[in-house]
Amino acid sequence: MKKLIIILILVIPFLNANAQDMGKLAPAKPPIIFPNNAYGFNVIFSEGGIGFGTFYRHNLSNNLTLFTDLSMSESKDDQEIVRINPFTLQPFTLFKKNRVFIIPLNFGLQYRVFAKDIYANLRPYINFGIGPSLVFTTPNNQEFFKAFGDAHAKYAFSGHIGFGANFGIDKSSLIGLNVRYYYIHLFDKGVEGLVGKFRKNLGGIFLTINIGFMY
Fold first, then answer.
1. pLDDT exceeds cutoff 70 at 1
2. Contact, 104 vs 158, CB < 8 A?
3. pLDDT in the model for residue 28
4. At residue 194, does pLDDT exceed 60?
5. Are 110 and 79 in contact, with CB atoms under 8 Å apart?
6. What pLDDT, in 10s, does the model give residues 98-116?
7. 160 contacts 149 by C-beta, under 8 angstroms
8. Residue range 189-215: average pLDDT?
9. Cβ count within 10 A of residue 215
10. How many Cβ atoms sit within 10 Å of the Cβ of residue 173?
11. Residue 144 gets which letter from DSSP?
């Protein structure tokens, strides 16, 4: 996962630079005005695995967008060690007591960069958001879905900064890619993922694919 994120961090600026050069060579065209509203869902990749979410965006101007998004993914401890049971051949994590899930609800602003230099089929942006986050745990010694019956929830503060881009010039659909660093902080002793090890900070780097509709 770390290698994938590093590659994306290196490739996206390169794509932006190439698109900027092509934009300068192409004849001037009137700017494309996209619809003011968009909604859809996110597919999230992190060191904790795959997560999912939803979003809503509203354009305040051609370059500034107000957004809210809600997501859910698992948060894993950096020290988790996965082994294979030699009898069942199923993977398990040594000393893991609870599965930890995070559900941040963030409100924020997204600012489009290089709007005058890059053609509209590549629309890079930077963004930031803040909001509450629900953190809950389920017993690791129970079956995945059955364990939700014994879940325990806490509230945390969350925020993120990131960068990404929307692709294409279709005015009805939206496809984008976003890399974010989330800060999620609990104000009590934290959650116990591994036996005897409590974590207060549950953030990290998340790669998000955005798929939605504009209207």
1. no
2. yes
3. 58
4. yes
5. no
6. 999 999 999 999 999 988 8
7. no
8. 94
9. 9
10. 12
11. T
Give pLDDT, residue 15. Answer: 44
| 107: amino acid identity, one letter | F
> What is the rounded distance in angstroms from the CA atom of residue 156 to the CA atom of residue 137?
13
Distance in angstroms (rounded) separating the CA atoms of residues 112 and 64? 6
pLDDT in tens, 146-180: 999 999 999 999 999 999 999 998 999 999 999 99
b or e along 42-67 (b: 16 or more beta carbons within 10 Å of the residue's beta carbon)? bebbbbbeebebebebebeeeeebeb
What's the one-letter identity of residue 79?
Answer: Q
- Residue range 30-47: average pLDDT? 90
The phi-psi region of residue 142 (left if phi > 0; otherwise alpha if psi is between -120 and 50; otherwise beta) is: beta
Q: What tokens were used for 144?
A: 């995945």
| Residue in 133, 84, 83, 128 with CA at minimum distance from that of residue 110 | 128
Q: Whose structure tokens read 């692709």?
A: 167
- Distance CA(135)–CA(190), nearest Å, equals 10
Q: What is the largest CA-CA distance in the chain?
A: 67
Side-chain-facing half-sphere of 122: CA atoms under 13 Å: 16
Tokens of 141: 């010694």
Residue 121, Cβ neighbours under 10 Å: how many?
A: 15
pLDDT surpasses 70 at 22: no
pLDDT score for 71: 96
How many C-beta neighbours within 10 Å does residue 35 have? Answer: 12
